[in-house]
Structures are given as structure tokens and as C-alpha cells.
Amino acid sequence: MTKPWAGRFAQATTTSVEAFTESISYDSRLYAYDIQGSIAHAGMLGEVGLMTKAEVRKVISGLKSVKKDFENGKIELDQSFEDIHMFVEHLLTEKIGSLGKKLHTARSRNDQVATDVRLWMKDVARGLEDDLLKLQKSLLQKAKEYETWIMPSFTHLQHAQPTGVAHYLLAFIEKFARDISRLQDCVKRMDEMPLGSCALTGTILPIDRSITCKALGFKRPTRNSLDTVSDRDFLIEFAASLSLIATHISNFCEDMVIWCSAEYNYISIDDGYCTGSSIMPQKKNPDVHELLRGKTARVHGALYSLLTLMKGLPQAYNRDMQEDKERIFDSFDTVSASVNILTEVVKHTHFNKQRLEDSCRKGFMEATALAEYLVLNGVYFRDAHHIVGTIVKLAEDQNCALVDLELSAMRNISDAIKDDVYNVLTCENILGMIKSFGGTGKASIKNNLKYWSRKL
């Protein structure tokens, strides 16, 4: 196959170079966006007189026919065409003759690929937002199911303070809400149309970029052609957003892996979402969670790869940038699949009420509430902190919980302790007493459940 750029070359490209430089094996997934951009471009060429109306109709009809062939599985990819842009042009020319060669007027593969990838990103980002919303709804349903259940919270993997199971699940709804917001912000910043920037400087031909921009649904044309073809900030930002989604999934899965162990037994996961061992018959492993946790490294790697790819490039377009697509496609595919499987898994995860309640009686988790009780009785907080530390040490020495200590023993340490102290020495009572906005108090949990029910 003679290359479109072969006029300056005395020798044909070797097959080894064709195999090494091709991107059609992975950028073929952009075919629909490439055709969408070409249809808009042809319409603009007709509007400014660079194509006749009849030519535009023929080109657009041919492009739609090519798209239908792709959709019906009639197209066999040919690596000799390097990329999807040249291949679509070839297929079009086969259908409508030499008129197909006119379509590339006033554009370059540089602005073409920038347009295709932006169109793809706008599309898949919306789909991912919808998937994250489903995940949030799955978490919300679980939070409603366990609205009144208590559990320990942890810092440094040590018992910290009592919290609610619903409060824990609602925390991840908040994280995924920020992820959705980041995706939306990312799309807003990249909502500019590259076509018409050509190779890097624009064109002397009388094009009207506003026509193409409107046809493709972008907010505005890009303002600097040099920046346009060299910019992949939007993909790096998208990769960063994907990395945070993966991180939040990994954080959740880390907890689930720990909590389904025999040592914790806080949760159980339905058999259909676990796997076994090839040698140990008793094993029931949270492999889905572990794989989700592991795939986060893959998504992070794509971000680092893109940053490294772009950091040393001179202006403007360089062939290195061809490497962006495999990274971002794989990152998106990984996160999309992760969000969807986690949505399923959440529905089939069950908390163990008795085990959670038993665990709340360990670790002196009432200590902070006891210190705040002393503050309410006029003790400075730093003094209260020291007093409660002494009381905890006493309970440790007696091998009992704080609630099991004699009132007189506690009053020997501080006379600010009254008969009503036992109200703050049970985790259930503490959750009823917490009133701060956004806290783990029962009223706050109820309000947040109502808020997210309306919002989602």
C-alpha cells in the first residue's frame, strides 16, 4: 500500500517498521469518533466552499456506510495503514472513489487524533459517572440496611472510637461523589474542539472552525494551534481521576479483605463472589477484592507512564504521543470493570452484627467520650486526657472494660466524675450523644441517609 505521505520517499516502508509503528491495533476503537469528526469536517468544507454540496452528501453517505460496516463486523484491520484515521480514509475512497482523498483538506492527523480522543473521553466519562452512581446506590442501600448497627472505627489499625456501619458506608459514597465531580471538571476543561489546528499552525484555507465545533458539540474551538496538537493534559487529568477512583476502590477492598478474615469476622461475602484454594479445601478467599486492590497499581502505572511520556517532549506533536492511547484505554477499561464488579460485590456483602458489637467492647473506645464528659464537667481538655489515660491504665490492670470499673475507683482519680458517668461508657449510648454535624451520631446518620436518598 502506498502511503499518503510517500511522495518524498524513494523507498517503501519495511514491514518491520510498519509493525513497530502501527497503532491501528488499538486506536481502531476510535473509529466511530473518527467518522463523527470526519462528517463534521466534510460539512464545514461544504459550508465554506471547499467542497460542493453534492460532494459533501457523497462523502457523508460514504462515511456512514463505512461506520455501518464496522458495526456489522465486515471490516478487517490492515496494519499497513498505520492508524485508524488513514484506514477510514482508505475505506471511504474505496466506496466513493477519488473524492475520498478530498476529505483531508485543511486537517492533519495531529488535530484529528486530538479530536477523536476528546470525543471518546467525553463519551466514556459520562458512562463512568453513571456507573459510579450505581455503585453509590449500592452502598446507600447497604447503609440503610445497617442504619442502627455499631462497629469499631480504627486509626493505625487500632481500635479508636465507636461508629456506625452506615457511617462507614456513607464515607465511601462521599469519596465516589468527589470522583464524579472530578470527572465532570475534567470534561469541562477539555471541552474544546481541536479540528482546524492542522499539523500545528492552522491553514491558509478559508475554514470556519465554529461550524465544526457546533457540529461536534464542543463548547468552543481551541485558541492556540501549537498548544492544541501538543496537549495531552486532558488525558493526564483523566488518568489522575481514574487513579483516585481506583485508590478509593482499593481502600474499600483492603478493609473487606481484613474484615472477612477469621480474626475479625466482621463481614461475610456470598460464595459466588469468592474463590477457593487448589490445595486447601477449607479456603474461601476474597479474590475479587484482592484483584481490585491489585489493579489499582496498573491504573496508577498508566498515570505515571503518561506523565513520563510528556515530560521531555519538544513542541509540538511528536510520535511518542502515540503511546498515550494504550495507557489511557487500559486505565479506563480497568476502572470501568472495577466499578461494575464492586457494585455487584457490595450487594452480596453482609455484616456480622454480634461480632461487631462484641468488638466494640474491646480497646477502650469510650475513652474519648469520657474525656469530653470531663470537659463538660469543667476539666480542661489536656487534664481530662491525662485523667482518662490513668483510668484506662487502671482498667488494663484489672483486665476489665471501663464500664466495669467501680465509681469510687474512678472518683479517686478525678472528683469531676459523677454518678452519670456510665452514660458515656457504652458505645451504643455514645452514638446517641454525638450531635456534631457530619459526625457518626444517630441523628447525623439518619440525615445523611435522607440527603443521599434525595441526591441519588
Describe the structure.
- Helix 7 runs antiparallel to helix 10, helix 7 runs parallel beside helix 18 (442-455) and helix 10 (233-259) runs parallel beside helix 12.
- Strand 3, helix 8 (209-216) and strand 4 (220-221) form a beta-alpha-beta unit.
- The chain is built from 18 helices and 6 strands.
- The chain has a two-stranded antiparallel ribbon.
- It is mainly alpha-helical and 456 residues long.
- The protein has 3 domains: 6-105, Fumarase C, Chain B, domain 1; 110-148 and 164-204 and 217-356, Fumarase/aspartase (Central domain) (Fumarase C, Chain A, domain 2), CATH 1.20.200.10; 361-450, Ribonucleotide Reductase Protein R1, domain 1.
User: Would you tell me the structural class of the helices and strands?
Assistant: mainly alpha
- Give the biggest sheet: 2 strands, antiparallel
How would you sum up the global shape? elongated
Instruction: Give the tally of structural domains.
Output: 3
Helix tally equals: 18
> In CATH, what is the class of the largest domain?
Mainly Alpha
CATH arch. level architecture of the largest domain: Up-down Bundle
Query: Kindly, what is the distance between the CA atoms of the first and last residues, rounded to a whole number of angstroms?
Result: 54 Å
**Average predicted local confidence, pLDDT:** 95
